[in-house]
Specification:
Belongs to the exportin family. Its main location: cytoplasm. It is found in: Cytoplasm; Nucleus. InterPro entries: XPO4/7-like. The chain has one domain. It is built from eight helices and no strands. Helix 4 packs antiparallel against helix 5 and helix 5 packs across helix 8. The N and C termini lie far apart (about 35 Å). The mean pLDDT is about 90.
């Protein structure tokens, strides 16, 4: 799977790769994380793969945050989609990643950045509907701006 992500990034644009990651993560979220009925076999196969590669989704989320925060990315909308899906799959992974990012910043900036992280998830719920995705995208744009203003 990780090979696929690297191949995708080398062969296609970030937008196409982000879309592929979002499709996988959204499928996992909808069929494993919040499923109310028995998941289809494809979802079980994906879940088994994720168990075998437990760092896969966390590493992708970390990479997406690094792109948004530290690089010039022209299309945050495309990156926000898989980011929300990955955050919703495991809020503990997001919490751990947030702590890592905060710890990597100068001490005098950490409180301000913690507030930025809180605002990132403001009015965002545990769903992947369009309205919720749009709210997260808006929050991510503000988060990136506030993070970069030092």
């Amino acid at each position: 799977m990780w090979f696929y992500i690297h191949f995708c990034m080398a062969k296609f644009t970030f937008i196409q790769c982000a879309s592929a990651v979002d499709n996988l993560a959204a499928f996992y979220f909808n069929n494993i994380t919040i499923a109310e009925s028995p998941p289809p076999q494809a979802a079980l196969n994906l879940a088994r793969h994720i168990v075998e590669c437990p760092n896969l989704f966390p590493e992708i989320l970390k990479t997406l945050f690094e792109i948004v925060l530290f690089e010039d990315c022209g299309n945050q909308w495309s990156l926000s989609r898989p980011m929300l899906s990955l955050i919703l799959i495991s809020e503990q992974v997001f919490s751990d990643l947030k702590a890592q990012i905060l710890a990597s910043q100068p001490v005098d900036q950490q409180q301000r950045l913690a507030v930025c992280f809180d605002k990132l998830m403001a009015d965002v719920n545990r769903s992947l509907d369009s309205r919720n995705r749009d709210k997260f995208t808006q929050n991510l744009t503000i988060f990136r701006h506030d993070f970069r203003v030092k």
